[in-house]
């Protein structure tokens, strides 16, 4: 679905990622893990085409991202930004309908298909009752769910999510992440997401990409790379993994102070 | 669900027809009102005479004068209001107005310089337009980063906004300089130009052509403007060419501002409060907002100008005074209601 070839990303003089050769296949669900400032968001923005790589390239399908027409690309991948600022009083339903833009061609108004897709996405995110609300009056978690609903309404095979669990309460963290895992498993969608909750990431992801922030990286299945020693090294803090039934619980080791 | 898009369309149609009728009614009202009022029943006859290219009666002569001034007011108001909507979408800030980037400041410097040297009226207009164009070009060169095309749209429009604010204050310093060295005899015309005055404005086709072109551009890009207003930089992941759209909005709104300011001086508040009021009344969806704001802006300035030339008749006020006197309290009231 998406692959990188000798991709390098720098911020100023600092090398964040060097020679990333990475392939994400259809139906896989990847978590990108690393410390603050390790280049997770920079990588995701590059994958979305919002930033040009400092070296190497990103391919979506078999085509370099720069060769895709923007409108066609918008039907291939959706991007959830880390934060949003709402300057105008659009309603929730208008926000979600705007994500149908890539399907409109030259039509001036949306039609009932778009409306049905928007309502379905709002229902999936449990915010259908907020449809007429002004987005600027929503709470942080409600706004985040509306943003994810917009992404679902865009109806793309590839989903790029920068901290989707941000601002969500416990129940919605679980349900949103569960939904993403289901989309990958049942509809062969592909997801690449950033998250700081290792337990949640391990529960929904099939693969993980670890970033060191100095150019080093490690990619593999969650079983291969989400090990206590590796995670401890990449996150700069020792990690304990506790088995609880079928689940692995990741907790930071307590400081011996 | 089938009725959804039909409802949207019906609502838009009703709003726009309503506003168009209001504009027409204001035009008739403005033709009737003045130092000599003409009864409504005489209007059809006068219009009929005008359409046949002859104005013999007093009524038709007055109607011709008033209507030509009223249409100039309309096109100026519509241009300013549309420029406001576009500038607000470009900067993603509902408090932006067509003057915020200093384009009107450049026009003021040009016009005042021409007035200072007692140039002919057309030189004043040309010089105002040239001033607006020069400031636009400087802005474009200095803030190119924010208007760059291509897929990779990084950052917002803060460079553009700050550069514009600085250029505006530089222009205002030049204006103050010229006002302070100007001889008494020319001061009045200079101050009137600054406030915005329609009394000398002739009927011209050019502002209509600019308005028509800008409206076509804005309607074509109305959906893209919605996406950009909502999603900022991430709009490019929805297929919007942000750089090209920003450039288009920048140049077209600059052209509208230059055209309006050249026509009637820098009339304040129309570009700020009319888009604001329209957004409040019809919602922020640009597909309805753009035509609604153009119609409402034109109607607002037409009525304000009718008031300006009748309220202390036979003396005429500059229309900018009226828009500011109405605009400031209305805006504060809106803001107060919004915050509650």
Write the layout of secondary structure elements.
The complex is a heterodimer of chains A (257) and B (340).
Chain A: E1 2-11, E2 14-24, E3 29-34, H1 40-48, E4 55-60, E5 63-64, H2 70-73, E6 77-80, H3 92-98, H4 112-124, H5 140-154, E7 158-162, H6 170-187, E8 190-194, H7 198-204, E9 207-211, E10 217-221, H8 222-225, H9 228-235, E11 239-244, E12 247-252
Chain B: H1 3-32, H2 43-51, H3 58-91, H4 103-116, H5 121-142, H6 144-147, H7 158-181, H8 184-195, H9 206-220, H10 222-231, H11 242-264, H12 270-282, H13 286-310, H14 319-339
Helix pairs in contact in B: 1-3, 1-13, 2-3, 3-9, 3-11, 3-12, 3-13, 4-5, 4-7, 4-8, 4-11, 5-7, 5-11, 9-10, 9-11, 12-13, 12-14, 13-14
Verbal overview:
The complex is a heterodimer of chains A (257) and B (340). Chain A is 33% helix and 28% strand. Chain A starts with a strand and ends in a 5-residue tail after the last strand. Chain A has helices at 40-48, 70-73, 92-98, 112-124, 140-154, 170-187, 198-204, 222-225, 228-235; strands spanning 2-11, 14-24, 29-34, 55-60, 63-64, 77-80, 158-162, 190-194, 207-211, 217-221, 239-244, 247-252. The mean pLDDT of chain A is 91. Chain A folds into 2 domains: 1-76 and 158-257, P-loop containing nucleotide triphosphate hydrolases (Rossmann fold, 3-Layer(aba) Sandwich); 81-155, no CATH class. In chain A, the strands form 3 sheets. A 6-stranded mixed β-sheet of chain A has the order 6-7-8-3-9-10, with helices on both faces. Chain A is α/β, with parallel strands linked by helices and 257 residues long. Chain A is globular, with a radius of gyration of 19 Å. The longest helix of chain A is centred in the C-terminal third of the chain and has 18 residues, at 170-187. Chain B is mainly alpha-helical. Chain B has one domain: Orthogonal Bundle (ABC transporter involved in vitamin B12 uptake, BtuC), CATH 1.10.3470.10. In chain B, helix 4 (103-116) runs parallel beside helix 11, helix 12 (270-282) crosses helix 14 and helix 13 packs across helix 14. Chain B is globular and about 65 Å long. The chains are: A alpha/beta (257), B mainly alpha (340). The A-B interface holds A 48-52, 66, 70-74, 77-79, 81, 84-91, 94-95, 98-99, 101-102, 104, 108-112, 114-116, 119, 154 and B 1-2, 4-5, 8-9, 92-94, 151-154, 222-224, 226-227, 229-234, 236-241, 279, 283-285, 287.
